[in-house]
Q: What sequence folds into this?
């Protein structure tokens, strides 16, 4: 998990310098990466990936490609209607869903 959290951080640092066309190229990777991490049973990677939405630039990239991104990550965010065991993850998830 520490390696996953470090990778999530490193990816966020790279995303801060990616423009919209560049993000379009890495979108398939990002969809798989985010969906896999949001499906984790460990709260640390989930919290780290949910932090992406707190960065204005990354949030704008996600918003610009929401038609493609949302259908892939929404099932992982909703977790079949079951709340996650960690209340912080639940709060962060609800903020992202807004």
A:
């Amino acid at each position: 998990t520490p390696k996953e959290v470090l990778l999530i951080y490193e990816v966020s640092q790279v995303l801060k310098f990616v423009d919209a066309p560049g993000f379009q190229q890495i979108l398939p990777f990002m969809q798989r990466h985010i969906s896999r991490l949001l499906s984790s049973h460990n709260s640390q990677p989930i919290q780290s990936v949910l932090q992406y939405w707190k960065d204005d630039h990354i949030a704008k990239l996600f918003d610009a490609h929401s038609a493609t991104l949302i259908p892939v990550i929404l099932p992982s965010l909703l977790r079949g209607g079951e709340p996650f065991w960690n209340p912080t993850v639940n709060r962060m998830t609800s903020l992202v869903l807004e």
Q: What stands out?
A: Helices lie at 2-15, 20-38, 43-50, 56-64, 66-78, 87-97.
